[in-house]
Amino acid sequence: MPAQQKKIIFCIAGVLSFACALGTAAAIGTQLWVKGTILCKTGALLVNATGQELEKFIGEIQYGLFYGERVRQCGLGGRPFQFSFFPDLLKIIPASIHVSVILFCTVLIIFALVGAGFFMFNAFGNPYETLHGPVGLYLWSFIACSCGCLIMILFSSEVKIHHLSEKIANFKEGSFTFKTHSEQFANSFWIILVCSLVHFLNALLIRFAGFEFPFSKSKDSGTTTGAVDLMY
To answer: TM segments (predicted)?
Structure first.
């Protein structure tokens, strides 16, 4: 592949990596990770509510990694309540998983920026170490993609397996019991999925530019000059 086309591919990959870093940073600061509804089970049982009557006992909840909001419905209208994970909910949530999600989000941002920098560096500069070459680009893309996958797995387990929404809904509730009526992942969660796919796409772009995957055996050891055209 001509050197000019390789530069264009690396520029595209660099822009995508930078956009993923910005998207992840924006997602961390929002409360749009999970949206759902919560049922005031105690209130509904007291009046034996059924059908449309249940709507008076169904509130809303949404939250992110640091804060959120719930609307408490127990037949007397909505009562909004804002909360933060640190330090309010630290004792009732799986803190180790939650902190790990935040940590991997930070690592994802860092390596997305590192990847963007090295993509641009390889497009316009002259790398002086092997790690700055195609092997390094594969490495940054792989780490960023892996972090995105770990974020989704850990956060999904926190929400679904550890019933995070119910724990939040029942926070500081003495006589009333709330149960998750419905919940779904919101925009910020899907941004992480898109970022993971983008970093996987970047690895394919590197391969499309003519550089073999790491640890793959070349059929002809003499045909290695293609990598030298741009990188060295």
So the answer is: 97-123, 135-155, 189-209
SS3 content of the chain, % helix, strand, coil (to 5): 60, 15, 25
pTM of the full predicted structure? Answer: 0.84
Give pLDDT tens digits for 172-201.
Answer: 887 888 999 899 999 999 999 999 999 999
Query: What is the Cα–Cα distance from 66 to 158, expressed in whole angstroms?
Result: 14
> Per residue in 114-123, pLDDT tens?
989 888 888 7
How many whole angstroms separate alpha carbon 180 and alpha carbon 32? 17
Order of strands, edge to edge, in the sheet holding 178-185? Answer: 78-84, 67-73, 58-63, 34-40, 178-185
Q: State the total domains in the chain.
A: 1
Angle of helix 134-156 versus helix 187-208 axis, rounded to 10: 160
Is residue 195 one of the residues assigned to a domain?
yes
Q: Is residue 122 part of a domain?
A: yes
Residue 124, CB-side half-sphere exposure with 13 Å CA sphere: 7
- Crossing angle for the helix pair 3-28 and 95-124, to the nearest 10 degrees: 150
Residue 232, domain member (yes or no): no
d(CA 27, CA 187): 8
